[in-house]
Amino acid sequence: MPDRVRRLIVIVLFEGVDLLDVTGPPEVFSLALRETEEAAGYQVLLAAESLDPVTTGAGVRVLPDLTFAQAAAGTIDTLVVPGAVEFDEERRVHPVVDPGLVEWVRVLAARTHRITSVCVGAHLLAAAGLLDGKRATTHWSTAQRLAADHPAVEVDADPIFIREGNVWTGAGISACLDLSLALIADDLGEAVALRVARQLVMYLKRPSGQSQFSVPLEQVSTTRRVEDLRHHILRRIGEPLTVVELAAYAHVSDRHLTRLFKTELGTTPHAYIESVRVEKARHELESSDATLERVAALCGFGTVATLVRAFRRRLNTTPTEYRRRFRVPPAT
Q1: Residue 274: burial class (beta carbons within 10 Å; 0-12, 13-18, 19+)
Q2: DSSP3 helix / strand / coil % (the chain, rounded to 5)
Q3: Residue 329: pLDDT band with limits 50, 70, 90
Q4: How confident is the model at residue 3 (pLDDT cuts 50, 70, 90)?
Q5: Any idea which residues carry the catalytic annotation?
Q6: Which of 43, 71, 180, 316 could form a disulfide with 47 if both were Cys (CB 3.0 to 4.6 A apart)?
Q7: Residue 25: partners with Cβ closer than 8 Å, 6 or more residues away
Q8: Cα separation of 81 and 21, whole Å?
Q9: What is the Cβ-side half-sphere exposure of residue 98, based on CA atoms within 13 angstroms?
Q10: What are phi and psi of 205, to 5 degrees?
Q11: How far is CA 55 from the centre of its chain?
Q12: What average pLDDT does the segment 78-97 reach?
């Protein structure tokens, strides 16, 4: 192993594993290397029972870098345990928990500084006894099963990820990205994690280089209640949105809603809604010839004057100037 590699990350491979659980974390860690050059010191290796290709649940075949036995012969900084599910005749979801794989997870964990699971991979950690006495999360569809099968585990299906000492558990499949960013923040600090998060968004840009509509990454929530509120706001961004209406939707008091936004997003409901409206307005100005009156209406500003004030406050420019600089010409 090169001297610069100080953090060996081993991802567990097995037949039927969720593909994104396997491919998501390496992409995030590679961006950390890019952002910090050699300072991150990450090396990601895929380990399986043998070196034969592994077919993921998506049907894509993946080649392991080393065997479980080879991985267990050294020291691992971070073990990533992804998951897999099966469906019965009634389309009910069942996590895959192979006893042989569980034993390898137990062996590898004994050689590991930090243990993580992605999605239903938490069932493998629980079966290996690694979650006993700990609070943990998993995909919402199997959370009740995890709690029933492992009463010594305190299952909380709400958070995107949970850290308990050196054990981290993540929720849904896409939460592997959130979890990986959190691990980078733990290793290298919040500033590096934020730079990586911004790079991930850049991959979603159009070829012109203009930003695609997205809520700012500085505001990252960790509970599904707030995530649900964010999606609700996006769906109804063109309508009047008040603290009273949002609190009723979330079944909390107005004061509790404000506390949720302050705690989870570091801002007020009003400021967050305005930021989303500005982002949507940017998208409209970049990609359409809609009048400012139309943009203001679509984005919930009501009037052009309100739209202009929001742009000046958040972007230090006007909607007209923004469109002049960033309008994407229609394809010819």
Answers
A1: buried
A2: 50, 15, 35
A3: low
A4: very low
A5: 119
A6: 71
A7: 9, 11, 44, 80, 118, 176, 177, 179, 180
A8: 8
A9: 17
A10: -75, 155
A11: 24
A12: 87
| Residue recorded with tokens 């469906």 | 87
Question: Alpha helices of the chain — where are they, by DSSP H?
Answer: 19-36, 68-72, 99-109, 122-127, 143-149, 175-188, 190-202, 224-235, 243-250, 254-265, 269-287, 292-298, 304-315, 319-326
Nearest Cα to Cα of residue 80 among 103, 37, 51, 114: 114
Strand pairing report for 135-136 and 85-87: unpaired
- What is the token pair recorded at 205? 């840009």
By the 10 Å C-beta count (0-12 exposed, 13-18 middle, 19+ buried), 252 is classed as: middle
Show the tokens assigned to 280. 């949507």
CA distance 9 to 234: 36
Q: Which residue from 234, 231, 256 is spatially nearest to 243, judged by alpha carbons?
A: 256
**Residue 268 phi, psi dihedral angles, 5° rounding:** -95, 160
Give the end-to-end CA distance of the chain in Å, rounded to a whole number.
51
Helix (H, G, I), strand (E, B) or coil at 7: strand
* pLDDT score for 222: 58
> For the chain, what is the total number of helices (H) and then of strands (E)?
14, 13
* Residue with token string 């910090």: 36
Q: Is 85 helix (H, G, I), strand (E, B) or coil?
A: strand
Smallest CA-to-CA distance from 132 within 110, 98, 155 is with 155
In angstroms, the CA 181 to CA 217 distance is: 12
Q: Which tens digit of pLDDT belongs to each residue from 36-57?
A: 866 678 899 999 999 999 999 9
Place of tokens 């400012």: 292
CA distance 126 to 149: 9
Would you say residue 226 has pLDDT above 60?
Answer: yes
Helix (H, G, I), strand (E, B) or coil at 93: strand
At 57, give phi and psi (nearest 5°).
-65, -25
Q: What is the dihedral of CA 127, 129, 133, 137, to 10 degrees?
A: -40
